[in-house]
Amino acid sequence: MNKSNKRALPVLLILTVILTTVLSACSTGGKASSGTEDGKVEIQFWNSFAGDSSKPLEAAIAKYNESQDKIFVKVLSNQDPQKQLTAISGGNPPDLVLTQWNNIGPWSAAGAVKPLKEFIDKDGFDTAQIIPAALDRMKVKDDIYGFPISMSMANKLFYNKQALEAAGLTAPPETLEQMMDYAKKLTIKDDKGNITQMGFIPDYPWIDNVFWPIIFNGSWDDGNGKLTANQPANVKSIEYQARFYQEFGQEGIDKFKSGMGKMETPQDPILTGKLGMMIGWENWYVDNRGEGKEIGVAPFPYPEAQPELKNAGMVSPIAMFIPAKAKYQDEAWEVMKYLLSEDVQIDYSIEYGSIPVLLKALDNPKLTENEKTKPLWDYYESAKSPNLKGFPNSIYINEYLQALNEETEKALKGQQSAQQAMDIVVEKMQPVADKNK
Amino acid sequence: MDQRSLGKRIAPHLILILFGLMFLAPFAWLLLTTFKSEEEIFVIPVQWFPSELIWDNYLNAVSMIPFVQYTMNTVIIALLSVAGVVVISPLVAYGFSRIDFKGRNVLFIFMLSTLMLPMQVTMIPLYVMFNNLGMLDSYWPLVLSAWFGTGIAYNVFMIRQFFNGIPYELTESARIDGASEFRIYSQIVLPLAKPALLTIGLFTFLNAWSDFQGPLIYLNNQDSWTLSIGLKQFIRENSVAWGPLMAAATLFTVPIILMYFFVQKKFIEGISITGMK
Amino acid sequence: MSSLQANTGIKSRERKRLLIGLLFISPWIFGFLVFQLYPIIMSLYYSFTEYNLFNAPEWVGLSNYMEMTKDAKMYQSLYNTIFITIFGFFPQLIYALGIALLLNQSVKGLSIYRTIYFLPTLVPAVASSLLWMWLLNAQYGLINQALGAIGLPEPNWLLDANWTKPSLIFMGFWGTGTTTIMYLAALQEVPKMYYEAASIDGASRWRKFWHITLPAISPMTFFLIIMGLIGSFQYFSQGYVFADSSGQAIGGPSNSILFYAIYLFQNAFVFLKMGYASAMAWLLFVVVLILTLVVFRSSGKWVFYGGDK
């Protein structure tokens, strides 16, 4: 050792000392949940809501915390799916998680989600009280992995009243064939051939690979592991959408899209009438619907030849689940049950502006006669429709949806036929499905 | 001849202003937008100037999230990160630049190679590690990653380039005089590399300031969140509070602009000192 | 006898240098062993397994690597990435140097200019992307209005698969602030006396730039190229934000902006194929390492350090 080493050494020593203090100082953080001093069990409840959209949930939980003295639920918002995934995989799972329904499939199939059968059996919890289409989204191969806390639905047609009036159309279209006619009448071009108003854009605001096949009574598997995305109903649903592009032209539509105004802003095309009609979700434009407002609401049109498909629609619930490695699973189940009780469901759906997941709540006068929830009244009613469906949950759901998306896009752009598109998807995904049988 | 020299003096300004306007556009747009009402933000075709100045967006921005607290948290993380980085990185850089030891180049490439693995695949093992160390829900995963994470390779490489540019005669004479390596490092080389240190300090600060992924993953409690997470609170499903979001983004950006302005001034002073040698 | 002594002298001096060297770089060694080694080794291990992030990884040997050779989307994402590296990164590097040269003159108000040129780098993406959507808007965008005015075709920058990558590259020019600043720092380091000497010899501006400036800043260029290569191959956020804010799915129209790192991310966290994603990561690692070594090998010819003996 020479002089220089002696000089360098202290610096490095100091560094090491700082580090070890740092390391020891923060060993207190960490663990997701713990018992509190007053004998209550503290459990962590993560949700992915940002900003004040977590308020309804926080309010419900605050009531729960007051109502009993065994469990204290700590609500942490803004824990987005990416983080949920990292924490659960990284060995630090919360006790209860609120997430998008399509995470239930992959996460439970991968073993990260606690199956709820034992809890359901133990308490004799009646799963038949949950809206079937919403509950189905919580199942993978018939096992229940979570419960929906609220439900979203796309089963209506929104239309700009003025635009329809201006085109001499007195009532919204009832069948898909009528809708096509309406779309032609509502589409206006300027003298240069640029589209300045459109009746309907089938892939606005996004390509929907679930909604459209449901309207045509399509499906994605037969329940026994055989994929059915290339059956006639699904293919027809894509052909129908593609017809809009054939009629009005890909380039023209794309150009119009870029200039028609941004969704959910004052320049929103359905509000300004630049867009005549669009798919209607219950939680969109709540303040702009109904009497004296810009937007009219009607049941989404059905194929003329198949009137039995009236009132079809897609459900996409928000899911609650208990991670398989959560520390306080019994307590989490208690909280889940509480959130599924009728009063809580009603309050929550009023505050959050969604549809409750309990069948009996759909008829409760607190909802159906409440002026505050008026824009949702016809949604409550249609939530009972037997034609509501959703996409089957599985470990490969996101890969399947992605493949559908890519091939549908090509079909809409006319690069391949709808049948080709769906054949490619099934060819690609069937081996994946077989592997995960 | 006179005209030409006048042109020569004005031409650089003209070009600088022309390009400057282009570079100014994003921030100018942001700033102007904050004074617009919701109706004006998305008007088609684009409208640059608000028809009247509205301050509501700022009021909403600071009331919708705990702005002061998030700023404090962000500053703490950023400063802690900078403090470690400016001590550690030049030390390592000196070893790789000025001391000719066996295996140096191999080790150097090895260090650089740690940057080549995308973080997406190391993220979860890293999380597992910080979990095992009991550091989740604290600032340490963020700060320690700034000090010792793969970013160290970037900083070291950059300072090494600066060190390599310092003439050998400067250090050789000290070495002949019997000065220790650490003395040469701390008294001759380090002061000359002030611009480099300022640069990595600045970049470290900016990275910590705008990092979203790290705080999101490691911080659970709302009290410990940073500004970048705060910005996301304005973006809710189906409804983005555009006006307040833009105001918050402005408040987020102004401090780092000011900091940058003063640091780059210093940075140039630092450089001119080097230039005197 | 004496040569032997000299030998041991050299050896002990070598050993001493090794020791001092290691001592200086020990913070990195410490950091590497404690914070980096475990994640790196784990990701290498995952690349030989089927791992869905929750269940224990299952050893599958080389099958992830084999699968990659048949994955058309992997090739597409690699193509997109190489495209953005060649037509994005390198032009932007030259552009940044140009701006730095501009900012390196002694004109008044230079610190203001310098701040302005750095500004776009500081504006959060959530705000600047909105502006971009406006500028690139097919119907009302400033850019297309300008193109239309001079009779050029007006592409649909955001939705036409042929134009999304050029749009991203175009936007990238605004993000060159960091590179510019580093070039600026390097330019300031160039000793003035070189230029003075050259002026006396009557060298033209171009000659001075070519024979003095470029070699003098070559260490910085070297650094920027290495880092740029590494960064470009992991190109992620811009592509992600771009698709998101123009209302597109990940990957954009026809997957035209599905970059390697985005596809990797998608595999890891959306499809839960961490094993496959890790294999992709290690392929990327090898490719970038080879490119880096090539640049390093060549650097002896074109990088000149002021401190060279």
From TrEMBL, chain A:
Signal peptide segment: 1-25
This protein's UniProt keywords: Signal
Gene3D superfamilies attached to this UniProt entry: Periplasmic binding protein-like II
InterPro entries named in the record: Bact_solute-bd_prot1 (IPR050490), SBP (IPR006059)
One Pfam family it belongs to: SBP_bac_8
Keyword Transferase: no
PROSITE patterns in the record: PROKAR_LIPOPROTEIN
This protein's name: Carbohydrate ABC transporter substrate-binding protein, CUT1 family
UniProtKB/TrEMBL annotation, chain B:
Stored SUPFAM superfamilies: MetI-like
Lipid bilayer topology: Multi-pass membrane protein
Name of a matching Pfam family: BPD_transp_1
Main location: membrane
Localisation: Cell membrane
Parts forming coiled coils: none
GO BP term, pick one: transmembrane transport
UniProt keyword annotations, A-Z: Cell membrane, Membrane, Transmembrane, Transmembrane helix, Transport
Domain of life: Bacteria
TM annotation in the entry: 12-32, 74-94, 106-130, 142-163, 184-206, 241-263
Entry keyword annotation includes Cell inner membrane: no
GO CC terms, sorted: plasma membrane
Signal peptide stretch: none
Family (UniProt): Belongs to the binding-protein-dependent transport system permease family.
Protein name in UniProt: Carbohydrate ABC transporter membrane protein 2, CUT1 family
Organism annotation: Paenibacillus aquistagni
UniProtKB/TrEMBL annotation, chain C:
Organism: Paenibacillus aquistagni
GO term, biological process aspect, one: transmembrane transport
Top-level taxon: Bacteria
Keyword Lyase included in the entry's annotation: no
Transmembrane segments: 20-46, 78-103, 115-135, 168-188, 209-236, 256-272, 279-296
Name of the molecule in the record: Carbohydrate ABC transporter membrane protein 1, CUT1 family
Membrane topology recorded in Swiss-Prot or TrEMBL: Multi-pass membrane protein
Keyword Cell membrane: yes
Entry similarity comment: Belongs to the binding-protein-dependent transport system permease family.
Main location (coarse class): membrane
PANTHER family in UniProt: ABC TRANSPORTER PERMEASE PROTEIN, ABC TRANSPORTER PERMEASE PROTEIN YESP-RELATED
InterPro entries with a match to the protein in the record: ABC_transporter_permease, MetI-like, MetI-like_sf
Pfam families in the cross-refs: BPD_transp_1 (PF00528)
Subcellular location: Cell membrane
GO cellular component: plasma membrane
Record's keyword terms, sorted: Cell membrane, Membrane, Transmembrane, Transmembrane helix, Transport
